[in-house]
Task: structure prediction
Amino acid sequence: MIASSDVAVAGIAVGGVVAGLFLLLRGFIGYRAAGRITGTSVSRIASLAVGEVLVTGIAEAVELTLISPLQSVPCLYYRSRITEASDGDGRDVFREERAVGFRVRGAGGSVRVFPSRARFDVPDRFDESPGAWGGGVVGLQPRIGSVFAPGPADRDQQIAALLTVHAVGQEGLLGRSGLPLSLAGGRNRYREARIEPGETVTVVGRVLPFADLDDPAAANLLDGTDIEAADPEIAADLAEARAAGLLAATPEEAWGNAAIEGFGIGRPVRTPELDPAANRPPPPDPALAARAAAAFEIAPDALILATSDEVPMVVSLGGPTQVAARGERQFVLGLVGGAVAIASMMALAIMVQGGAR
Result:
């Protein structure tokens, strides 16, 4: 008969093997990432050439920003997780990872980054659980409304947003946030990693002309929610419409005035064609037109950063030195995990040999 204490020890040993191997695998991934950073010289953005490069600079929003699910923070990338914490680090009950296209600005210029299929090296900046005596989770502010928000606001809009006080209620936070109410209670663990506008990032990827992107719209988004990115039925309908010549050649032909940036909010960047009896909008704003052109219009020969099968993209938070140091720490932790796995396997072997006698 096997003693209950032996079963408990065996369970601990098996857990040690699994955890140790997981840490070892993460350690090798960190070592490889650190080696890729230290083995590639930083390229000047002003003099980029086609091929693999490493650039570092300040991340800037372009057309859109994201709103993170757990803390409602405007960002360019987030990875959010809610895990069952009743028995340690349990299964994920919620997991979401997204990124939008952004710009990296360094000395002498900037380059547009299309993050689809990229791997993000970003540590958690929010990691909380309910207190031992119950109560809420400090810092938890689930998202209300859409995952997407407008891109960089002008100075007046930023001041107005900063001075606006929003009343926050528990029902409002959880009832309209898109997160199930049950995820806000119990002993769940909440974690979130983010890249926010204005932070330093290091990007390794492939430089290519914008015209070489097969699908710029898809390349501009990373969606890690396991939602099917393309609907085959919609794709077939579009192909049929193109073949029949039913699709307009330009947005202006398809939508008329609605294709003018800013028309929907009463601030068109160029003069629309209106009925003489219609209310006239304010005159076009050259500064707004320049902003719209910088965000939405990319020249075919403009060099951009993207991922490819030959050069996978890695986007890391921080400068090259910080990124390399983080990878080296992860490698050391992986070696510790490997030692734990070996010790646990030896303990299991001794138990099996002892039970066989």
Q: What stands out?
A: The first strand starts at residue 51 and ends at 61. The chain has one domain: 4-356. Residues 62 and 295 are 5 Å apart (CA to CA).
